[in-house]
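quick q for whoever's on today - can somebody do inverse folding on this one?? i tried earlier but teh output was garbage lol. tokens:
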């Protein structure tokens, strides 16, 4: 195939309806495009077949995960350049499909298909979740989704997350480290919840036990942590034992809907509500409300998307749904606050940590890239590529204000109406 890169670049620009901001390098050694731009490298003909048979984000993702397609040069620069053409089309996301219906594009695609090899769609990488997209969020489907994402291996997560083993947005100072920023985030949550010795805290989606250990050790509270991941629970229990906190902290493999030993004085839900789903969110909020005693506080730390003009048109990101967070759904901040209020909560404070999450993700990507050989050995090269792509893309999404993350502090106010919060609640920043 002579000069495959030029032909690939021409087809891509026809389909995208805009100049391709990347250099293209094909398996035949040919190159086309700006010489100083990052290169989109198609390592073999299978990469082309993946993209042609599944135009758009999912085809590119499958080629990336399988190792058929790579980025040569700065990954962030390449993703940022491509974002507006592939990942940010919003309500025009079906534009690629419409482009394929254009006779000129279809003729070029047929020509390339002949040159790309056998006209058979390559099987998706085995890391792809293949099931009906119904987002039922039953106990069974939620357990399966959580296992897919979190039961990758604790050693792999240690490499990516660092010693804190906190898998959510950190809280940064200018000169902070990832470890200090995660510690500060946990302390910020404890301060917002007003934790005092002898109180009971429920940590919903407790992960590897970082919040539970910190709250028990630093504030003397009793903690129940629940997770659906067996691997997380085993790791968290060992941490609790190593800290000598088994009398204060209990880690359960349990759905939050099955927790029945309230009331609690406080509930932390950190990076968990994204798994709940729109249809179940009010149920989630009502359940947490019921588990709190009068005056109890909820700290809900949750990623948010930008609202759409037509909310019924919202679709879950194809790559994230297939490879990262099966059945995960994002909601606008206003929707989340409204649902919490419908459940009976009084929302007292909302704080955006959007820039903090971008910096956190870049830290995780740096950890992954620094330990790439070990990461690929622990989780497999395909899974490691999934993580590198999704974390780098998410870092850019937070930086560009395409998604955000917020801490919402809410109270189950007693009949008297007294919230229990100080008049100047933001004193926790002093």
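ok took a stab at it. sequence:
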């Amino acid at each position: 195939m002579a000069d495959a890169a030029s032909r690939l670049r021409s087809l891509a620009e026809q389909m995208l309806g805009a100049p391709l901001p990347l250099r293209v390098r094909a398996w035949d050694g040919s190159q086309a495009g700006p010489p100083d731009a990052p290169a989109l490298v198609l390592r073999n003909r299978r990469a082309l077949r993946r993209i042609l048979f599944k135009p758009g984000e999912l085809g590119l993702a499958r080629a990336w995960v399988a190792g058929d397609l790579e980025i040569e040069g700065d990954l962030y620069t390449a993703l940022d350049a491509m974002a507006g053409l592939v990942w940010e089309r919003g309500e025009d996301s079906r534009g690629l499909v419409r482009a394929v219906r254009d006779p000129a594009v279809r003729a070029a695609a047929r020509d390339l298909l002949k040159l790309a090899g056998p006209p058979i769609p390559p099987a998706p990488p085995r890391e792809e979740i293949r099931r009906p997209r119904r987002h039922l969020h039953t106990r069974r489907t939620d357990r399966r989704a959580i296992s897919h994402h979190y039961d990758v291996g604790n050693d792999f997560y240690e490499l990516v997350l660092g010693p804190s083993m906190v898998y959510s947005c950190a809280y940064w100072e200018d000169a902070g480290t990832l470890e200090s920023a995660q510690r500060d985030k946990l302390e910020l949550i404890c301060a917002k919840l007003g934790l005092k010795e002898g109180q009971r805290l429920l940590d919903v989606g407790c992960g590897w036990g970082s919040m539970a250990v910190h709250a028990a050790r630093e504030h003397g509270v009793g903690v129940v942590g629940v997770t659906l991941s067996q691997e997380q629970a085993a790791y968290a229990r060992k941490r609790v034992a190593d800290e000598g906190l088994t009398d204060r902290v209990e880690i359960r493999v349990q759905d939050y809907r099955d927790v029945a030993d309230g009331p609690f004085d406080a509930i932390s839900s950190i990076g968990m509500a994204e798994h709940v789903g729109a249809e179940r969110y009010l149920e989630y909020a009502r359940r947490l409300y019921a588990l709190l005693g009068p005056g109890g506080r909820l700290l809900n730390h949750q990623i948010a998307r930008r609202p759409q003009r037509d909310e019924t048109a919202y679709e879950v990101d194809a790559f994230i749904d297939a490879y990262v967070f099966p059945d995960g759904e994002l909601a606008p901040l206003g929707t989340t606050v409204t649902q919490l209020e419908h459940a009976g909560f009084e929302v007292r404070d909302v704080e955006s940590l959007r820039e903090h999450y971008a910096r956190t993700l870049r830290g995780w990507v740096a950890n992954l890239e620094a330990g790439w050989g070990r990461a690929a050995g622990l989780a497999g090269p395909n899974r490691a590529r999934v993580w590198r792509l999704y974390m780098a893309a998410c870092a850019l999404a937070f930086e560009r204000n395409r998604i955000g993350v917020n801490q919402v502090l809410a109270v189950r106010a007693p009949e008297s109406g007294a919230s229990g919060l100080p008049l100047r609640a933001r004193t926790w920043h002093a």
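fwiw The CA atoms of residues 40 and 70 lie 6 Å apart. also Residues 381-399 form the longest helix (19 residues). so keep that in mind when u check it
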